[in-house]
Amino acid sequence: MENMPFVYGLLAMLAIALLHAAYTDIVRREIEDWLNAAIALGAPLFWWACGLSLWPDVAMQLALGAGVFIFFALMFALGAMGGGDVKLLGAIALWFPWGVMAKVAIAMSLIGAVLTVIILIEHKMHRKLGQPEVPYGVAIAIAALWPVGERFFNHFA
Predict the structure, then answer these.
(1) Main subcellular localization, coarse class (predicted)?
(2) By the 8 A CB rule, do 25 and 135 touch?
């Protein structure tokens, strides 16, 4: 495919954006709207570079992104997630097919569980008051970096 340098460039930009999301979630417990918008707006360029057809490929990506966003918006309504996490997941879902996104969700859950245990232990050890805040954007970013990096590191398998 002649667009591969462009595809790799877009994936590199996605990786940088995911690392920035994780960093800001650690430092400020916030994932900026502009970053989520940039990730979402980069997806159509990725679709074009990969040669996705409008029907059914792009339609399926849009449906997946909307479905993921709606599901996690319900989690936000229940107080289980932050709004930035929801928007980040919806934006990420625009980049990956449903099978990859399912693996991202499983990895995110496992990484999030480990992260939660670490935060709880740290919270107890330092005898901090109040409820601990888990920067779940870190788990989301790490889980999403896996399929991004796979194109670079596992292309011989």
Answers:
(1) membrane
(2) yes
Per DSSP, helices labelled H in 29-135 are 33-50, 59-77, 83-93, 98-125
Give the global pTM. Answer: 0.92
* Rounded Cα distance, 146 and 38, in Å: 20
Per-residue pLDDT of the chain (157 residues; tens, 9 = 90+): 578 899 999 999 999 999 999 999 999 999 999 999 999 999 999 999 999 999 999 999 999 999 999 999 999 999 999 999 999 999 999 999 999 999 999 999 999 999 999 999 999 898 888 888 899 999 999 999 999 988 766 655 4
Radius of gyration of the CA atoms of the chain, in A: 16
What are the structural domain ranges in the chain? 4-153
3-state secondary structure of 128: coil
Q: What angle do CA 69, 22, 116 make, to 5 degrees?
A: 80
Of 50, 24, 32, the residue nearest 91 (C-alpha): 32
Could you give the CA distance from residue 92 to residue 38 in angstroms, rounded to a whole number? 11
